[in-house]
Amino acid sequence: MFDSGTIKLYRKGNSASAGLMPVDAYTLQVECCYEERTVGVTRYAVGLQNDARIEMIARVPQNYEIKVDDVAVLFPYSHIDSSVYQIYQIQQLKNEDDLPCTDITLVRYEGIDAGEIINN
What pTM was estimated for this model as a whole? Predict the structure, then answer.
C-alpha cells in the first residue's frame, strides 16, 4: 500500500507586490507516499464529458487539507514523470483494510513543467 512513489501537493498563490502583474508562486502543502489506482471507464468517460481527461488516481493517507485547486507533482518509482497534475476530485474513503485514505483524481496540467513548481 502507498508503494507507487511520492506525491507533492502545491497550492498556487501570487507572490507579486500589490499593484504589479501577478506572479505565480507555489507553496508545498503535502508530501507523502501514494498508491496508483486504476481509472475506470465510467470515471474517464464522465471526465471527458466535462472537458477533463483524467490521467490517474492517486490514493494517499487520509488528508483533509488537500484542495481541488492544488497541483500535484509525482515521483513514481517506476519511471520519471516531469508532468504537473491538477486535482479534479477528492474523495475521502476507507480502503479494503478499513483504513482511512483519500483518493485524488488527477488531470494533466498543460503548459507547465514540474521544474517550474519545484524550483519556485
Answer: 0.83
